[in-house]
Amino acid sequence: VTVEAEVRSEHELRALGYENQGQLLRDMSAGYPLPRILENLVRSVEGRAPGLLASVLLVEGGRLQLGAAPSLPEGYNIAADNHPIGEGFGSCGTAAHRRQLVVVEDIQSDPLWKNYREIARRYQLGACWSMPILDAADAVVGTFALYHEHPRRPRSDELALIRYFSELAAFAIEHHRMRCELRERDQELRDLVEDLDGIVWESAGETRRFSPVSHRSERLLGQTPDRWTANGGQWQALLHPEDREATMRRYRQALREMKGGELSYRLLGADGGQTWVRDIFHVKADPTTGAPRLRGVMLDISRQREAELEREELLRQRLDPDPVERRRAEDSLRLLADAGAELGTLLGPEATARSVAALATRELADWCLLLTHSERDGIRAAAFAHRDPSKAALGAELQRLLPQPGGTPFGASKVLAGGESQLLPTIPADAFDPGAARPDLMRVVRGLGAESAMAVPLPASAQVLGAIVFVSTAPQRRYTPRDLLVAEELGRRAGLALANAHLYQEAQAAVRQREEFLSVTAHELRTPLATLQLTTQSILLVLDTPPVNLEFLRTRALAGERQTLRLSRLINDLLDISAIKAGQMRIQREKMDLVAAVQAVLTRMHHELVRKGIDVTVHAPLPIMGRWDPDRIEQVVTNLLSNAIKYGDGKPVRISLQEQERHATLVIEDQGIGMTPEVRARLFNAFERGISSDHYGGLGLGLYITAQIVRAHGGAISVGSTPGQGSTFTVELPKKPEPEPVRAREET
Amino acid sequence: MSTILIVDDDEDFHEALEAAIASQGYAVQHASNGREALARLGPAGHRPDAILIDLMMPQMDGWQLLEALSRDPALAAIPSAVLSAAPRPGILPERVVLLPKPCDLRELLQFLRGACG
């Protein structure tokens, strides 16, 4: 047994302790991880006590885990890791259990090591003295142990060393735990701040330099936090110009008085929009410099603020000392409430317009004119209402006279053009646009009376659907900006109602069109089927009653074949429609002769023409070559010729073909029933027919498909017609594909 | 020989109908709309033993023809049948028989036998 001779004096020990304490504090403030701090601690013990090996085990999950034991053999450390706590589990397990120092002088003979003798022998460990590490709350958080190669009893200075170092270890472990907890709390707080539906901010007082600003700023304003922190001046640019001065003044005051508070203002978003925020802030002196710091949360109150403003405005009106003004405010509120209720019901556009005009004359106007504006119908005087029913005739006349070329009364044309409201407290001499100041119109307006007027838009998303003109006929009732606000609000609600009415009408029309299409399709498919059925049944009947007439059977079979062709043509039309609607109409161009295509169609339709006794003449001097889709071009000729036969009243049909430099022209002319301009306007639409479906068969798809084919070739189709005298269809086809299609045009 | 008047604007259908009826020994007249039919039924004309009428026709449709027929008791007395492909043809005068298209030839011949005695 070797005995270490050195005995330390009390003084020496204290010096050693201070030295290690200093090292430990330096390690801790450097933020080293716990294993590294413990390792340094262990190494410094070992440096002071040669021949002794130190270990720190930490209590985790009720067992002892390796903390730091850099000098003990790795194999031993692995075996000792995750060691149970309890009586008889070696020096450390027992010390942690007993909560007091356990000195094992000879591992091989001590009962506490009964189960670990073999491993201690293998790693040449003779003695182990272990001390529990207790935290401030006296809980065991680990063990500090010294090992010696040979069995031996610790000297008193060595025991002091153990005690002292276990205390240092306790300090390091506790510090580490606190740091972990702090970090967790910090993260929780950070999450809380980022989850908050507001901007958390902090800034140095005098300079207004922001340090942290929560990322919510990005979602609320589209402004990244660095937009705030970059420098003091930039943040002010985020404030709405109207609120900038007052807001900054309030902050300065708060800093002066070292007093927090709340204020509301507008911040500018990256998209140019504005957000109302309520900023709740407090002022605190910086603990080190003593300079005041501002801290606060900005909450998004835009929606709330808008409602507030509306309420304030109405309250202000209600509290107006003038009883007339007060009554008007009440009237306006009632009018808007009524508008909400009445315009909420689903009506057609006409009925909606009438309803709006009637609403307007209930409170706001003596008479009202509603103008609508659409690409299809242009400007229309859609509705008129007057408080005095005897003026109805004059109103009807006004509606008939409007719209005037270049203008409508009381600035309505400006409203229709730009959507900007017009307020005319008095009616100026030029209330009508110069071009519109026609005597007949002036007479009507004078008859209706006009002392003051307003015109407001009927907005619907980005469009202006029309305008409402409000007119007061009483000299004492002159419109004010406040009336204009109410009128504009009514306009907004009416615009929405009108847009809905249009959608409703379109939906209904689409449903009707679809139903009619289905019924016509059924009829059109049934007719050739009926013919086919009759044909087959008559063949069977003849076969059953000999002698069989073979010639009869042959003609019937041919007739049957014709019906199957007719059916397949119908089905092809339906398929073409699906392809067109899906935008999948494909043109396969090849070099072809247009005249030959017309001749081929005539040959195919020869029997039909002969049967119907229709004379078709073709005027085409020479072949006309071009790059077109042969099947589709024949479809065009067939459709137009069938159309001419169908509506041609049995009279001759003339086909003429001409060749120009860049395009070819095909003209098919009949002398049949012709059509009115209204019919002509709709002719090339899908499911449209000149005549009602009761009189003429057909799907009404032929001309639509024809027009689509022509357009797909970059060409144009047009029709000229006079009722009772016939129609002329003109097709222009570019001979080669052109980048710009020829514009469709119509002739009379 | 009994004569049947077919009033139908669809060439194919009228041709098939004519062939079927003619093969059974009837004489057939044809009109492609109501107006033509009334012209054929005029005062001096030979009155058919039965009339087969389509509803959808140009110029004068089946409904208008039926109405015109009902105004003249002599014409109203001629047995008539409507052949229609319309899904819901509507209410017909009491004496008029409806034979929906596609029609059964046996049913049609039965009507003609009844009409022509």
Report what the structure shows.
The complex is a heterodimer of chains A (748) and B (117). With 748 residues, chain A is of the alpha+beta class. Helix content of chain A is 48%, strand content 21%. In chain A, the strands form five sheets. In chain A, strands 3-2-1-6-5-4 form a six-stranded antiparallel β-sheet, sandwiched between helices. In chain A, strands 8-7-11-10-9 form a five-stranded antiparallel β-sheet, sandwiched between helices. In chain A, helix 1 (10-29) packs parallel to helix 6, helix 13 packs antiparallel against helix 17 and helix 19 packs across helix 21. The longest helix of chain A has 64 residues, at 481-544. The relative contact order of chain A is 0.04. By secondary structure, chain B is an alpha/beta fold. A five-stranded parallel β-sheet of chain B has the order 2-1-3-4-5. The longest helix of chain B is centred in the N-terminal third of the chain and has 12 residues, at 11-22. The radius of gyration of chain B is 13 Å and the shape is globular. Chains A and B meet through helix 17, helix 18 and helix 20 of A and helix 1 of B.
Secondary structure topology:
The complex is a heterodimer of chains A (748) and B (117).
Chain A: H1 10-29, H2 34-48, E1 52-60, E2 63-68, H3 74-80, E3 83-84, H4 90-98, E4 102-104, H5 117-122, E5 127-134, E6 140-148, H6 156-195, E7 198-204, E8 209-213, H7 216-221, H8 226-229, H9 232-237, H10 241-257, E9 261-268, E10 274-285, E11 292-300, H11 302-318, H12 323-342, H13 349-363, E12 367-374, E13 378-386, H14 392-401, H15 412-418, E14 422-424, H16 439-448, E15 452-460, E16 463-472, H17 481-544, H18 550-581, E17 590-593, H19 594-604, H20 606-612, E18 616-619, E19 625-628, H21 630-646, E20 653-659, E21 663-669, H22 677-682, H23 702-712, E22 716-722, E23 726-734
Parallel strand pairs in A: 18-20
Antiparallel strand pairs in A: 1-2, 1-6, 2-3, 4-5, 5-6, 7-8, 7-11, 9-10, 10-11, 12-13, 12-16, 14-15, 15-16, 17-19, 20-21, 21-23, 22-23
Helix pairs in contact in A: 1-2, 1-6, 2-6, 12-13, 12-17, 13-17, 14-16, 17-18, 19-21, 21-23
Chain B: E1 3-7, H1 11-22, E2 27-31, H2 34-40, E3 50-54, H3 62-71, H4 73-76, E4 80-84, E5 97-100, H5 105-116
Parallel strand pairs in B: 1-2, 1-3, 3-4, 4-5
Helix pairs in contact in B: 2-3
